[in-house]
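Hey Z.,

So I finally got round to the 2-oxoglutaric acid thing we talked about over coffee. Here's the setup:
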Amino acid sequence: MDDLFAFPLVPGLAYADAFLTSEEERALIAAIDHEALAPFRFHGWTGKRLTASFGWHYDFDTAAFAPADPIPAALLPVRARAAAFAGLDPDAFVQALLIRYDPGAGIGWHRDRPVFEHVVGLSLGAEAVLRLRRRRAGGGFARASQPLAPRSIYHLTGEVRHEWEHSIVPMETTRWSITFRSLSQRGRAIGG
Ligand SMILES: O=C(O)CCC(=O)C(=O)O
Ligand SMILES: [Fe+2]
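And the result:
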């Protein structure tokens, strides 16, 4: 049975339960709530989820990509472990995005911006469903769905990162997430 679960749902998606202890989860939730979270904005539209980004900020209102405040020190130990999960150097993960999804908040279908490459995400507080879809040549979508348990980790790279879209079903109870991103070649060219 283990092999069944080790086989990725979609190539490039890795997932593991029980990555964080409950104590770490509590401390990380407190660290997120300590930051000045602001409603996500997209071309003048305001989303329900609250976010703060560190290291680099991609502004969805203006498409500007610029350095931001450094990643808080409290996140560095977990960044190192998340990087190890992804098989990458901790310093590669130059962006941290903190999100709080209060009830009713989710995230619509998207692919992460091309200035970024690897995405590693930690889930806190409540289980979410990460939906995945990829347009089929003949019409319609191939679909998959990955439950994200609280205290779990996921990594998006390769096919799932570049060819599939993802979304988070609107939450019924509050969920927090921390996603770390590396820069793509394009991101490094723009950002230096
Ligand atoms: O909350 C999450 O785990 C995913 C967030 C996400 O897809 C994004 O910020 O691009
Ligand atoms: Fe995303």
